[in-house]
Fold this protein.
Amino acid sequence: MNFNQKVILLTGASSGIGEGIARHLAEQGHKLVLGARRTDRLASLCDELH
């Protein structure tokens, strides 16, 4: 069990800075709950990160 791993809620994750932050946090092993208005782009990002 990794006690440094966090569950993080991130809005605006479908593009730009939000997407970059989501990618960075996922690479570090955190669990993400992502939200955005552009659900098609958000779904694509989730597929990539999963």
